Amino acid sequence: MNFGPGQARGILQRLAPAGRFHHARHPADGPLAAFVQHYWIVRWNLAGHAPQLQETLPHPNVYLVFEPGLTGVHGVASGRYTRVLEGDSFAFGVKFRPGGFRPFLGGPVSSLTDRSLALASAFGAPAGDVERRVFDAADEHAMIEVVRAFLLDRLPPPDPEVARVAAIVDGIAADRGLTRVDLLAERHGLGLRALQRLFGEYVGVGPKWVINRYRLHEAIDQLAEGGHVDWTALALDLGYFDQAHFIRDFRALVGRTPGDFARDLNAPRG
């Protein structure tokens, strides 16, 4: 199972209707589709407008990002990602499938958690002028061709564990009723320790982290719909023992209680 670009999830802060903003995602194809989930581009022009806050709950994926002054490979971020956008700029990136960067890295992806690497360090060889060619590209499609050629030149041998890990993580994202690691391990015929080792080696975070993150994505999606929320029912539906535990986890990660977040998210924007 591969969800491809799909719908963006985990977005905490909506951008205000000011300036120009472009976001697009394009699926990977050919041999890279086994490792790459999709390519993405974000462009913004806020000239004459106030800076805008962007907050997201990152996914269990490694990213290769090209952005002036920030180019590099970024491991899974354990907390929320906060960024202030200003001026006129862009970021172009590659979102690897869960587990998909392990063959390129040649070591445990847990070594990248909450860390970033320069291109040369991440790929074990000089990255050449790929960054310049991405920045000089006429549009996002030309950027994709540049980066696609770069990755194909460094294509690792097939690794069956990549497909296995990606299928496990995709299954967690798709099954909102899955809330326990022991049931996940049983479903895939693995012991708990074997599952933990597999995730540390290929994903960079543990299976419990992935389950909690996707269940919080579910909560954010539901809160974004507006309307009355039965907090106790929502907490139980997402696998929490009670409402207090859900609120504690939500606030620790998002920085606000679910109620405050829902009010902020659905407040009128001027």
Explain how this protein is built.
The protein has 270 residues and is of the alpha+beta class. It is built from 11 helices and 8 strands. It has helices spanning 102-105, 119-123, 130-136, 140-152, 160-174, 181-187, 192-202, 207-224, 231-237, 243-254, 258-265, and strands at 20-27, 36-45, 52-56, 63-66, 72-74, 81-85, 88-96, 116-117. A 6-stranded antiparallel β-sheet has the order 1-2-7-4-5-8.
Question: Helix/strand/pairing class, anyone?
Answer: alpha+beta
What is the succession of H and E elements?
Answer: EEEEEEEHEHHHHHHHHHH
What's the number of helices? 11
Helical content stands at 25-40%
- What is the approximate shape? flat
Give a brief outline of the structure:
The chain has 270 residues and is α+β, with helices and mostly antiparallel strands. Helices cover 40% and strands 17% of the residues.
Keywords:
270 residues, alpha+beta, six-stranded antiparallel β-sheet, two-stranded antiparallel ribbon, 8 strands, 40% helix, 17% strand, flat
Question: How are the SSEs placed, and which strands pair?
Answer:
Layout: E1 20-27, E2 36-45, E3 52-56, E4 63-66, E5 72-74, E6 81-85, E7 88-96, H1 102-105, E8 116-117, H2 119-123, H3 130-136, H4 140-152, H5 160-174, H6 181-187, H7 192-202, H8 207-224, H9 231-237, H10 243-254, H11 258-265
Antiparallel strand pairs: 1-2, 2-7, 3-6, 4-5, 4-7, 5-8
Helix pairs in contact: 3-4, 9-10
